[in-house]
Amino acid sequence: MSRYKYKVCFLGDTAVGKTSIITRLMYNKFDSNYQATVGADFLTKSFKLNQNYIKLQLWDTAGQEKFRSLMPSYIRNSSAAIIVYDITNRESFNSIDYWIEDIRNERGDEAIIYLVGNKTDDPNNRLISIEELEKKAKQNNCNFLETSAKVDHNVNLLFEKLCTSLVSKF
Ligand code: GTP
Ligand code: MG
Predict the structure, then answer these.
(1) Residues lining ligand 1, CB < 6 A?
(2) In 3D, which of 84, 81, 42 has the Cα closest to residue 60?
(3) Model-level pTM?
(4) Per-residue pLDDT reduced to its tens digit, 97-113
């Protein structure tokens, strides 16, 4: 049995659901009222996976533009970055390029990156297909997944995959 500890930062435009995904993971709850994250929040969560104990230090960063200059300092210390966008919001998908650029500037090719399309519970307003996500992920050497924090779709799977990626790389 081995023990591992990793820092992971959540990035992405405002209101895409970063805090909601983490709240679903930690407390199995969902709040439809939006409360913007200020700066960043820090939480830890432990996982047991294949006889390994894995402790993740999660940095839930603020997507609002006014906090943007703080992001490199969170990215710098992280082994993995989860870039979240909203599948009903084209602009949040386009922003992935900027977030990847920030990560590459700080970490080169070292960091594991997951692209996560959130809000799959709202298919009528979907603007980004899974094929488009897959294409962007392949172009940028990233992993990818779609989730819904609201109806608890793929949230646990995201963290399982993330832990597996972290243990096999670091
Ligand atoms: P910042 O802290 O400003 O960066 O935003 P955030 O990315 O943390 O977004 P947050 O989790 O606060 O969610 C923003 C809004 O989207 C809230 O009203 C949530 O209830 C809603 N939301 C989050 N996840 C989902 C989801 O999976 N489906 C739906 N329908 N709404 C969601
Ligand atoms: Mg937030």
Answers:
(1) 12, 14-20, 31-32, 34, 36-37, 62-64, 118-119, 121-122, 148-150
(2) 42
(3) 0.98
(4) 999 999 999 999 999 99
